[in-house]
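Forwarding these from the shared drive since the link keeps breaking.
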Amino acid sequence: MSGVDGLRPTDNKEIGLGTRLQFTSRDSVRESEITEWKPKKRVALTSAYGGVTATYTYSVEPDDDETRISLVAVCTATGAWKLLRPGLVWAMKRSDSGQLNDLRTAMGHASAED
């Protein structure tokens, strides 16, 4: 997916609730933790950087003969970061808006607009 390179567990344990994942984003190595895990239904990844915490929740639901995947991103901020939160949310929306299309393309399907 654009903006994220090489999402992988930081240890050799089975992937599930509490698993820490490492990835590269915007030329920086970062970590995220699986904070919700319902196999084949939902996964939430939470990352913290400074006073900002972002949680991305991906949900999978059957929809007639297809599968619907949704993404909800929640950003919280503490301290001086609270003042910057509106700009951070805007930047997240802008940089992450193509995630589901990227996933769909990686899986060999047409774009979500089809």
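-- next protein --
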Amino acid sequence: MAEWLKAPHSKRGRLVRVSGVQISLSPQIINMINTKNKKVLFICKGNWFRSQMAAAIYNKLTNSNDADSVGTYTGALDEPEGQILSKLFKTRDFFEVMENNGMNVRNYKTKRLQPFMIAEYKTVISMAEEPFIPDYLKQDKKVIRWNVENPPYVDRKIAEDTYMKIYSLVENLIHANKI
């Protein structure tokens, strides 16, 4: 958080001094400032493969940490939130493909999509498939839908093919939106 946002505040906002002038920022303005850097949210069903891959590719291509990833089904009894990716795969293929392209995601953890998250990002990309798409995600006009298959398992070919598809989609997103 910016240092000047740590100024004293009340329910009506924060008083800050800008160029010698004291001004009051409303909670809405503070929220907009705090979320300004949250650019892209990638969503898939389980947050263990496609959305993690997309966020890592985006962050590498933009040399930033502006992308995050979550899952719509993460947090269910059979897919608990907070699982470490390296423990979810039967082979090393996914990790080797990512590492061969300069990204280490082995220790990333799965996270669950929450409805409030949609408003926090400038761009929201969903790869989640039916029946794992909540109504609020379907109805939000901000959400961009990518058709990237959710494989039942990940071997080298699936990891490479998915990487190439997502890389191309992310690259197009960056160039088309200048984000």
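The chain has two domains: 3-33, 38-177. The first helix runs from residue 27 to 35.

- D.
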